[in-house]
Specification:
Layout: E1 6-7, E2 20-21, E3 26-33, E4 40-46, E5 54-65, E6 68-75, E7 80-89, E8 95-99, E9 104-108, E10 115-120, E11 135-138, E12 158-159, E13 181-182, H1 187-192, H2 194-199, E14 204-207, E15 211-213, E16 221-227, H3 234-246, E17 250-255, E18 292-294, E19 298-299, H4 316-323, H5 328-334, E20 339-342, H6 350-363, E21 368-371, E22 381-382, E23 385-386, E24 397-398, H7 401-411, H8 416-429, H9 432-435, E25 439-441, H10 450-455, H11 464-468, H12 474-493, E26 497-501, H13 527-542, H14 545-548, E27 550-557, E28 560-566, E29 570-577, E30 583-586, E31 595-598, E32 606-609, E33 613-620
């Protein structure tokens, strides 16, 4: 019998397979062969701090597995991020047990890759209301237009009269140019479509920025306390929140706090506002918000874009304006917002995030704080330091880009084992409180449309001119639709909360900005996809296992992935077959009696999944 000395995904070796809470006891066990003749074994535990390595002795146990003996240690660490491996001594010399693929441990003569151990604060809590729900993301100018007249529209905007026109994609074409074409989508239009959103099972509306700004994306904020006039009024926002709440839908807003627009009340480069902006005078009340190397034309700006001057987020005046008692965060929550998504959260300093969380939770303990982080948020390094986004004093959860990338890689040919490893790594690294609210998207305003990404052949067109004329032909679109269904099944059934980018359910195509931000095709939707997404939303809402159920993988190889979501009441079996041929897979025979939302139950323990298809089965737990 051959055994690995350590398996971080096995409860026999690691008693808690998720992140810990501070003070929670963890038992780690090694399995060492008698022929290795170990005389002592140690857990090697360190943080990022220099000289932090310490060795904790493991004790030999009376428990054996054939010729292998267990050695174990228990610990209850404080909140923080830790790295660990093992060392043992023997007459043959010292050896290390280091991390290998699939979280397995192997014996090595030298120290190697470590395992991660995340420990969050003991009092880390996240809101309950979103767990098991669905997020719907809207780019407000392009979702729905009420047709209501708007007051005080700036005259330097181009108002598009053809709702179905392709967005402007060049910057040198006069008034109708990239970022300056407005389609008339508004808050009242969203309110009118709440019944459609309810049919999709939506529990949370995430709105891209709605505050006054002089580009249609509104990531160049001009006034944090004013709704952009193209979107309506503050009263329209209050009505939207109230009407959504009546249908069980909460609204969260996009907060852009790492930079403002240069054409803003605060910087006021072009003199649009009566306020004295930082560009106009070093004596401006906003001067401390910005960093000038030579006033007024040389200043720090976001990613080198002069129209986006960077903010010093810890400036006392800025911090008070955003996080204070009457600051931006609490102001809009008092008017109906249930939380915030922070743009480029990994570019916001710890002091700002600490204050922001405190403000949001003081206003409403159930307020939700979501962050944009594209990598594993538990071990991200930005601006020279390891970040603590999910240790309990900052974000509730993050956008799940690692999962989105894994889903696309799997559907485009990667082995299912790679996707499964990615999922299990996230579940190990992230606190469970954050896992259940992970924003599981497969497309956003910053990425190509999922349908386009799945149907594209060859290289991605490298410029906007090529992307503007790029469309899926009938054959590639048909296959992309089939793969999109598989992507959505994974998105809706894996741990976290699925986030549907407006129009994906209608079959919208488009490469990156601005083509992924076209107007919703009302009256021209792909009805088959729309009904499919409604089915998924209904299925998710009907089953509590998606809110609090554990994830149990059954099979993950080649083009096939099978797993369970299980809680005390029920278990859901999900099987996905990416291949172009039917798959015959082994599953527990108890699912013969399951209800099938899609596909057919197994015969005995044999489940057949159609080509590029999936199976969804629901069964009460045997002890329920």
């Amino acid at each position: 019998m051959e055994c690995y000395p350590y398996d971080a995904r096995s409860p026999r070796h690691r008693s808690v397979r998720t992140a810990l809470s501070a003070g929670q006891t963890l038992r780690l066990r090694l399995l060492l062969h008698r022929d290795a003749a170990p005389t002592a074994a140690f857990l090697r535990l360190r943080t990022d701090a220099p000289d932090s390595l310490r060795e904790l002795p493991l004790a030999p146990c009376d428990e054996w597995l054939g010729a292998y003996q267990y050695w174990q240690v228990e610990l209850a660490p404080d909140a923080g991020l830790y790295w660990y491996d093992f060392r043992y001594e023997s007459p043959h010399g010292p050896f290390f047990v280091v991390r290998a693929p699939h979280d397995l441990g192997v014996v090595s003569r030298q120290a190697g890759e470590n395992w991660q151990l995340t420990v969050c604060e003991a009092d880390f809590r996240t809101p309950d209301w979103l767990a098991g729900g669905v997020i719907y993301q809207i780019f407000p100018d392009r979702y729905a237009a009420s047709g209501q007249p708007k007051a005080a529209l700036p005259p330097d905007r181009f108002c598009q009269t053809d709702w179905n026109a392709q967005p402007a994609w060049r910057q040198d074409t006069g008034q109708r140019r990239l970022g300056n074409d407005y389609y008339g989508g508004d808050l009242a239009g969203i309110t009118e479509k709440l019944d459609d959103l309810a049919l999709l099972g939506v529990r949370c509306l995430y709105l891209n920025p709605i505050f006054e700004a002089h580009a249609n994306h509104r990531y160049n904020t001009a006034d944090y306390f004013r709704i952009d006039p193209h979107l309506g009024t503050e009263a329209d926002f209050v009505r939207l929140c109230e009407a959504a709440r009546e249908k069980g839908i909460a609204v969260i807003l996009d907060g852009v706090f790492s930079h403002t627009g240069d054409d803003s009340r605060y910087f006021n480069r072009f003199g649009r506002y009566d306020d004295c902006g930082a560009y106009q005078s070093p004596a401006s009340p906003y001067a401390g918000w910005y960093r000038f190397s030579r006033w007024p034309d040389e200043y720090d700006c976001w990613w080198g874009v002069p129209s986006l001057p960077e903010v010093n987020e810890t400036d006392p005046g800025f911090l008070k304006l955003i996080t204070g008692e009457n600051g931006v965060l609490r102001y809009w929550m008092r008017r109906g917002a249930m939380g915030w998504r922070f743009d480029v959260a990994d570019e916001l300093p710890d002091a700002f995030l600490d204050a922001a969380r405190a403000a949001i939770k003081a206003e409403n303990p159930d307020g939700f704080l979501l962050g944009e982080v594209w990598e594993d948020a538990t071990n991200k390094i930005s601006y020279g330091s390891r970040r603590r986004f999910l240790l309990g004093r900052q974000l509730d959860s993050v956008m799940n880009y690692p999962l989105a990338n894994g889903i696309f890689e799997f559907l485009q040919g990667e082995n299912a084992r790679v996707l499964l490893d990615r999922i299990l790594d996230l579940l190990s690294n992230y606190p469970p409180q954050a896992v259940r609210l992970l924003m599981n998207h497969i497309g956003t305003h910053d990425t190509p449309r999922a349908l386009t990404r799945l149907g594209a052949t060859g290289e991605i067109p490298g410029d906007r001119a090529a992307q503007a004329v790029s469309h899926l032909d009938e054959r590639n679109r048909a296959r992309a639709r089939r793969l999109l269904r598989l992507a959505a099944v994974l998105q809706y059934t894996l741990p976290g909360v699925p986030s549907l980018y407006y129009g994906d359910e209608a079959g919208m195509e488009g490469w990156g900005d601005p083509f992924c931000r076209a107007a919703y095709p009302w009256g021209r939707e792909d009805r088959g996809l729309l009904q499919f997404y409604r089915m998924l939303g209904s299925f998710r809402r009907a089953h509590t296992a998606f809110a609090d159920g554990e994830f149990l993988p059954l099979h993950g190889e080649m083009g096939h992935l099978v797993y369970l979501r299980r809680n005390a009441k029920e278990e859901i079996l999900v099987a996905v077959n990416r291949w172009c041929d039917p798959a015959v897979l082994q599953v527990p025979s108890r699912f013969e009696k399951a209800d099938a939302a899609h596909g057919a139950p197994p015969t005995g323990n044999t489940l057949t999944v159609g080509a590029e298809d999936f199976v969804l089965l629901a069964l009460p737990t045997q002890d329920n």
